[in-house]
Amino acid sequence: MSSQDNAARQANTGKTGDIVFKTIAYAAGILILVTLAAVFIFLLFRAWPLIGGDQAANTQTVESFTGGKAHNFWQYVGPLLFGTVLVSALSLIIAFFISIGIALFISHYSPKKLAVVLSSVVDLLAAIPSVIYGLWGGLILVPAIGPFWNWVAKYLGWIPIFEGPAASPARTVATVAVVLAVMILPIITSVSRDIFLQTPRLQEEAAIGLGATKWEMIKLAVLPFGKSGIISASMLGLGRALGETMAVLMILSPGLTYSFKLLQASQNQTIAANIAAQYPEANELGVSTLIGTGLVLFVITFLVNFIARKITEKASA
To answer: Which site among 28, 247, 250, 282 is 20 to 30 Å from 314 CA-CA?
Structure first.
């Protein structure tokens, strides 16, 4: 066999491999879209009788399911959506700056051996099941944080969100936000750390060579380079907080109001925790109601990730 024949056979083999790999990659991408569409269609199909059906019958169903606290589906899901966004936003605010600080310490300040240990600890925290955080929050944090919330209500109660008296035990939105912040902190930290470590060495050395301090180098080179990654990490953490169930269910004293009173119990509830709490005892129409709230959560989560993707694209441009 001539060398030309061998070259032609190798070229054909390479083209075949490219075609197979491309087909598998396309199939994997399409499978994700099909799965996403299937989940959406299922939720919409099960919730449609309540969302778009006979409104009089739907009103009766919701009133019966909620004990008269809500008179239609949107009146029912509104406070739940408000509570979900409130708890998730608070947890992100608490976790964001701490996570970025830890990530910068690991990537640029700590000794190498300590950085390895801290990275392992952060990755371990990200792998802990949410029910463990719920147990820790309910059994340890709730009793321990009560005096602090009392102090906050006493001296900062003139601010509406800290209006007292603080609930005892502290099964409030503020406590849940702290627990969720601890849960999403390792996610944001881990992703941000990896982004910071990818900062081009030449950019860092150039900033130092021009006389910048280490913090100025981080501000001029590291943070701008990692901006899109920080946004992605934050949205990833926010997505987990939006869908968190067990930790919220085990700590929060639920309510169905539009309230910013973070230190008072029985004010808010999240969609995911409400589904977990109500599903075991719900009848068929009640299940449809809960699935409808799940559809709203699905759409909100999708919109959050979509917006985050657009922000990331602009930050990368």
So the answer is: 28
Residues 183 and 38 occupy one common structural domain = no
Tell me if the pTM is above 0.85.
Answer: yes
**129 with 248, same domain?**
yes
pLDDT tens for residues 57-70?
667 767 776 766 77
Same domain, 45 and 151: no
Q: Are residues 46 and 93 in the same domain?
A: no
Nearest to 83, CA basis, from 294, 291, 255: 255
Do 78 and 123 fall within a single domain?
Answer: yes
Cα separation, 102 vs 99, whole angstroms: 5
Is residue 306 a part of any domain in this protein? yes
Residues 40 and 134 in one domain: no
CB 65 within 8 A of CB 285: yes
Residue 122 falls inside a structural domain: yes
- CB half-sphere exposure, 12, CA atoms < 13 A: 6
| The total number of structural domains that make up the chain | 2
HEC-encoded secondary structure of the chain: CCHHHHHHHHHHHHHHHHHHHHHHHHHHHHHHHHHHHHHHHHHHHHHHHHHCCCHHHHHHHHHHHHCCCCCCHHHHHHHHHHHHHHHHHHHHHHHHHHHHHHHHHHHHHCCHHHHHHHHHHHHHHHHCCHHHHHHHHHHHHHHHHHHHHHHHHHHHCCCHHHCCCCCCCCCCHHHHHHHHHHHHHHHHHHHHHHHHHCCCHHHHHHHHHCCCCHHHHHHHHHHHHCHHHHHHHHHHHHHHHHHCCHHHHHHCCCCCCCCCCCCCCCCCCCHHHHHHHHHHHCCHHHHHHHHHHHHHHHHHHHHHHHHHHHHHHHHHC
Domain residue limits at 15: 1-51
